[in-house]
From TrEMBL:
Organism annotation: Spirosoma terrae
Job description of the protein: An FAD-requiring monooxygenase active on some tetracycline antibiotic derivatives, which leads to their inactivation. Hydroxylates carbon 11a of tetracycline and some analogs.
Coarse class of the protein's main subcellular location: cytoplasm
EC code(s) of this entry: 1.14.13.-
UniProt name for this protein: Flavin-dependent monooxygenase
NADP listed as a keyword: yes
Amino acid sequence: MLLNDKKITILGAGPVGLTMARLLQQQGADVTVYERDNGPQARIWGGTLDLHKHSGQEAMKKAGLLERYYATALPMGVTIADEHGNVLSKKETTPENQFDNPEINRNDLRQLLLDSLKDGTVVWDRKVTELKERDGKWLLQFDDKPDATADFVIVANGGMSRVRSYVTEADVYDTGTFIIQGDVPEPAINCPEFYQLCYGNRLMTAHKGNLLVANPYNNGVLSYGVMFKKPENWANGNALDFQDRDSIHTFLSDRLSDWDERYLQVIQATSFFVGLSTRKLPLDKPWKTDRPLPITLIGDAAHLMPPFAGQGVNTGLMDALILSENLTNGTFESIEAAISDYEQKMIVYATDAQRESSENEMAMHQPDFSFQQFIH
């Protein structure tokens, strides 16, 4: 095998990095994962993830974890309502579609993957700051932690990776959408009318360029996102202070002032807010071929995209599946050849996924946008 006697480092203990580690360990590879979080219990903010049947679930199947994913994830339907709280349509789960893309909490998915790895695979509290070539190996430098070495580095530490430049000079850019994520603990008590409006499903509402997507079942928390086109004056520093929760309450209540009281209720009941601009890493610039040692990118580090097609994690899991197979199936004569073949394939399918996400994002900014056109 190409990886015999090789020390492999994966940067990032997200779902893509951990799945990559699992797939390589199944074939006997020596893998270490370095993660900036302090430990496995660090909360990963964000909505639930749904692994698609013909992409993310294929990687989980190869990893021997598909049944555990099904046992942990929750099949969910979709309720589409208007700004007045009128239900426009509902799509329920059925025995036939319940395993198409069930929703899983991000920390639950991390724990599922961690449980599949050898003890000590993940080294926590390691924020990588730089990579250097030294004596035929990669030297990894961390913030206030000892250095480490590796023969091969797989970068899976997210869309804002600081060490991506060894592979591509492409720059991440802002796509123009802003998302405010909120959490409501014990939603049946703290926002009962909104909780009932969800009907046990994910809830989607769109009105005049403001979109709200909520999941009432995210490990005891109702999590939701409010999405809108970023105002132009925010580029001059006129943004939001997420340390001041009351100011976010006021901002969202003003923005959705003509929405039904049930939507305002969930905003007022929110205990935690975070905000982010959606970003994209373009794939139209050729990746470097003169890398000093084996290194490649997977997941958001390779193809960051807006989350408007549910393709981000699924595309990343396809990366892990294809790259791990290339490295272990005996087809390629060198690690570099295995990497090159993976990257050529990835750029094709990841470009398609980015295109779908971007098209959806543009549609969502239209004043007459309705979620019904996407839910069949």
